[in-house]
Amino acid sequence: MEHQKDKKIIENYVESYNNFDVKGMIKDLDENVVFENITNGKVDLRLNGKDMFEQQAEAAKQYFRTRNQKIESWRFDEFSTIIDIHYSAVVATDLPNGLKSGDTLELRGKSEFAIEAGKIKSIRDYNSK
After folding, report:
1. Under DSSP, is residue 63 helix (H, G, I), strand (E, B) or coil?
2. For 84-108, b where at least 16 C-beta lie within 10 A, e where not — what string?
3. 55 in helix, strand or coil?
4. How does pLDDT run across 26-75, given as a tens digit for each residue?
5. Neighbours of 124 (CB within 10 A)
6. Contact (CB, 8 A) for 92 and 63
7. Pick from 49, 52, 48, 29: which is nearest to 119 by CA?
8. Helix H or strand E encompassing 69
9. Is the pTM for the entire model greater than 0.90?
10. For residues 69 and 87, is the Cβ–Cβ distance under 8 A?
11. Cα–Cα distance measured from residue 35 to residue 125, given in angstroms and rounded to the nearest whole number
């Protein structure tokens, strides 16, 4: 039963992300949420708190024409829920990493969510370049 509630919260977050709906993304975040983006084993972005997360999410919308996280599998343990994702996006503007406007970005990764009392306490996105 608890997994079903967590699954619904995560599905809402991913759907909101895909639709550039920041208000929907933050709806179930804890005020003190911690977000980390981890690339090749190193944290390259860490956000502390719902307000900081919202600011980053709003700023990130300008970089993509479209973006889509597709959940490919689910894993549940005592402390977290992990989803494997296939990510694709069309870049809206030239980026410092060499991607140009109109380029397609595709990668696979995973996201780990810690949820307590119906609120997302932490999100860790893992990917490799």
Report:
1. helix
2. ebebebebbeeeeeeeeeeeeeeee
3. helix
4. 999 999 999 999 988 999 999 999 999 999 999 999 999 999 999 999 99
5. 18
6. yes
7. 29
8. strand 64-76
9. yes
10. yes
11. 8
